[in-house]
Amino acid sequence: MPQSQETSGPIDAWKETTLQPTDITHPDYFHKIVDCQWACPAHTPVPEYIRLIAAGRYADAYLVNWKSNVFPGILGRTCDRPCEPACRRGRVEADPVAICRLKRVAADYKGDITPLLPRPPAVKSGKRVACVGTGPASLTVARDLAAAGHAVTVFDREGKAGGFIRFQIPRFRLPEAVIDEEVGYVLNLGVEARLGEPITSLKALLAEGYDAVFIGCGAPRGRDLDVPGRKEAASHIHIGIDWLASVSFGHVKAIGKRVIVLGGGNTAMDCCRSARRLGGEEVRVVVRSGFEEMKASPWEKEDAMREDIPILNYLAPKSVVHENGTLTGMTFERVRAEYDAAGRRSLVPTGEPDEFIAADDVLVAIGQENAFPWIERDAGIAFERNGLPVLDPVTLQSTHPLVFFGGDAAFGPKNIIWAAAHGHQAAMSIDLLLHGKDLHDRPPPEVTLVSQKMGIHSWSYDNAVSIDLRYKVPHIEKGQALRDITTEVELGFDIDLAFKEAQRCLNCDVQTVFSAKLCIECDACVDICPVDCITFTKNGEEAELRTRLNAPAHHLEQALYIADGLKTGRIMAKDEDVCLHCGMCAERCPTGAWDMQRFLIDMAQVGARSSALAL
Amino acid sequence: MSFLPKPKLHHPELATNDIGFTRRDYEGAISTLCAGCGHDSISAAIIRACYELSLPPHRIAKLSGIGCSSKTPTYFLGAAHGFNSVHGRMPSVATGAYLANRELIYLGVSGDGDSASIGLGQFAHALRRGINMTYIVENNGVYGLTKGQFSATSDRGSTSKKGATNTDAAIDLVGLALQLGATFVARSFSGDKAQLVPLIKAALQHPGAAFIDCISPCVQFNNHVGSTKSFDYIREHNEAVNRLDYITGRSEITADYAPGEIEVVVQHDGGVLRLRKLATDYDPHDRTSALRYLQERTVAGEIVTGLLYVDPEPENLHQRLNTVATPLNALEDRLLCPGSAMLETLNAALR
Ligand SMILES: Cc1cc2nc3c(=O)[nH]c(=O)nc-3n(C[C@H](O)[C@H](O)[C@H](O)COP(=O)(O)OP(=O)(O)OC[C@H]3O[C@@H](n4cnc5c(N)ncnc54)[C@H](O)[C@@H]3O)c2cc1C
Ligand SMILES: Cc1ncc(C[n+]2csc(CCOP(=O)(O)OP(=O)(O)O)c2C)c(N)n1
Ligand code: SF4
Ligand code: SF4
Ligand code: SF4
Ligand SMILES: [Mg+2]
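YS: structure for the whole thing
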């Protein structure tokens, strides 16, 4: 039978170690509570833009995004969305808020925002910066530095800017018009784009007298397969990323009816879905590991399976089978996962007979590698043993003081949002360098905390908590989707669905701020809190205190908000974990000891007007 | 009052009780009382007590009179029966309901105005008759609903929010309940759920007239300096005679206290109360000494709280009247109306 958890009795037996009151003025404290923003590599103010979408202010929502992540329309369709697994909503019901697809809503309905974008400043710094590559990392550097008045030149060996966004991500996921638009916003800031110009020597580039060089050349080499028969049947075995690029450029327009795609990452998912659109009828994805451990995002696996692509797991490639050089299929060894005492996994053969899968073409999507053939050994850039440059993790400066790295070129293949985040950091470093300042002396974020109180029980945010489950983005009918590789599959939320999905956001940036001086310990907040976050109790050591709060509090990465100075000598302990930010505690508080305050954190950025946020 | 209902989402690990309900299942509509009102804390304590006892909400009857306190049954146990009676008349309704159906669990919620002013007579008779109910007075020393006039429990010499001094003597409902024969008498404070929840659980399990005087500050009209029912005043003057630590249904007694420190009281129905003594010389089984102790401490300016008196073998109205055990609504017509021949016999016997 459950029992009351509160402790009672006089407050005399103080513990030896007790918790210190929380310093809510530290910018990280409330930032961490905005789980999505904290998890976003570029720290996009998610709840802020979601509220703007709910208010129908799509252009403002777009600009909040554009400032943080530069590619809202692109990311709203393709982002790896580290924010969503972090979203608080996922801890109080089944699914997180569809943060990523709401970003697309902002892009879809924003109208013409060009008058709202910054213009190249009239006063130039006189400094010149070169960026190698025009992927998201370089373009972010270019945007930030151009807006700060530096002269930026971007180089790419391809004839169009955008990097992997342009020629890897298939059109059915990301229409080219969206790329043109958002790449255009950057280049229009007065960035000089030298496209179709491969950089073949870092030394030569440096010799051109640039004040700084940013290397955002990506991780351009696809890993190859090494099994018997690979060489003989080479004409029907393709490296995934090269094949996708050829498809994108229109060099490849067809593929055999039976296709094997090797690999479990997102590249494999793009390969198999592209193959389905180019004539592949029996397309199969084959992975060595288990289905659950695949690197591809769950939604990409779902999308593939929805297009009748089976994913076969625990099959290790053994040989390519061919008849006089004509591919007929592949054999696979059946494996299973075994874990040692340390929990490390190894795949061991099950001993069952090998599996043969017939195929006309094989797409190899088993990983990417970095390659810097154009950086001379004696150019002053030190490399790690894994082939990646030696970098300062904060400034992204290489061992050559004028050369910086970011995106996939810096730490190996990641994703667009990380590339943008690196871009901001590298731009900050380069700007400091160009001003002769210490690269580690980085400007702090700008933080504001504003009460949302409008009346006794009204707030300037919508504090009603929606109980709607996550809305699905509508898709185009499957037959139509498979007919043309440039037809976008996802239709995006319409305005009505977008509003309803936006209302699922818990407004985690509207913080509960407690003032012990005003508290009369009437328990009103404790009684009303729908998730039992708040406890008034004796102080103690954290691990022990967590066992006697009003609700289980074992997510240690989620902070306890501690305040002392209460009349009874107890502390107020609030577990931030599943707080709904509903404001009920503040509504029921007779003295205003609780207040709901909107926390805005504006990460320092080069070239940005400060407080560019819309509200 | 809040404009929005309490959000439906709850803690992901919210536990369920023996009958599969969460604590949230015992809630009612969102309170319309003033923010911070002590009465809301008592509602929360009732919710918790019923949840912890795994009471089926639909077997509970909530009864009340008029006042802010009497409004509270709307804010808990949304699935229970309810009767919001006339001012001060809750005990009559409770008596009638109890006579008609002894199988429901009766929970009366009243105020100091409702029970000590207009309803004092009703209060007295419900207790002396032994209605098997839990009678909670949410005592704030004022008529909250009508904007803070002194009530009959207001202490002589205490001042109103506007500064007027109360010149009348106060009625101590605990003293009255003891004299009137209530078989479970306790006092508690809305700001101390650790004390209050076990007391409500014990009262709900007590098979007789159980009375709890729960001091419940009115933040709007009686929480100022000069009031003797404010949060600060109660916290300063609260003297608990004991702590009820556990109440477990019929489970085994495994006390881990030093002898003499803990007293185990087995109730008539087998329910077990464990009482941790705070005032060593206090005996909760002796009405007379309880009354004396109460008066002495009151003179000394203390507010005595805790389980002040309990009779583990109480008698109730049904036992005294020897009434039929089956609820009237479950009796066949034949038994409810024995017919004219029987009436004749009865009348003849009385001639
Ligand atoms: C098939 C596939 C699908 C993907 N899908 C997604 C997705 O949905 N979401 C997501 O977030 N990420 C995705 N990614 C990863 C993402 O594309 C990359 O992480 C991201 O583009 C890296 O950006 P970057 O700026 O570092 O470099 P890149 O985008 O790789 O751009 C590098 C650019 O540098 C140019 N370049 C290289 N060397 C030279 C040179 N010597 N001279 C001149 N130019 C040079 C290249 O031509 C290229 O344009 C995907 C990757 C692949 C392969
Ligand atoms: C017959 C009758 N007389 C007077 C009133 C006016 N009246 C309403 S509530 C109330 C007093 C309530 O005081 P209390 O029971 O202490 O409740 P509180 O609001 O303080 O919780 C009075 C006198 C009434 N409603 N009915
Ligand atoms: S609920 Fe909203 S603010 Fe909270 S983590 Fe999710 S998206 Fe972010
Ligand atoms: S805002 Fe207040 S009442 Fe709402 S969940 Fe958070 S702590 Fe609880
Ligand atoms: S007037 Fe007093 S008793 Fe009534 S709701 Fe307000 S605080 Fe509570
Ligand atoms: Mg009253």
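YS: worth flagging: The CA atoms of residues 274 and 362 of chain A lie 13 Å apart.
IM: good catch. Also DSSP finds 22 helices and 24 strands in chain A.
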